[in-house]
Design goal:
- By secondary structure, the chain is α+β, with helices and mostly antiparallel strands.
- It has a single domain, classed as Hotdog Thioesterase (Thiol Ester Dehydrase, Chain A, Roll), CATH 3.10.129.
- It is 21% helix and 39% strand.
- It has three helices and six strands.
- Strands 1, 2, 3, 4, 5 and 6 form a six-stranded antiparallel β-sheet that branches.
- The protein is globular.
Length: 140
Amino acid sequence: MPKPIVFRTTHHIRFSDLDPYNHVSTARYATYFVDHRMQGLREQIGWDVEALMKAPFMVFVRRLEIDFVRPARVDQEITITSFVREFHGPDATIECTMSDSAGKDVARCLMVVAHIDRQTNRTSDWPPDRAALFYEKDAT
């Protein structure tokens, strides 16, 4: 089985990310995970916003399931890693982990991203050549 490419980004928690209890607000976690994937698409796959707007397909986050492990706080540096666990029809299932500077998990996320045909505006199966971009090339 091919090895998935791991996206890795680093973020700094800002004051505006906090709720009244001095924790990162719930909605910001979702924003961090989605922004992380978009940054990874740009850096690892070459799909920046301009390229995605011209592509014959669209991607849409269909579902996010976030497990909150421990609070993230202001001025904390966090690292998010993620990889595509599997493709099933139009869905890519992505595992994400947010960790603090000591490597302890802060949150985990399961993200399902749908592949959408731009002409029909309907989901379509991930083409094998497009799905292959998310795995390391075979050395043989």
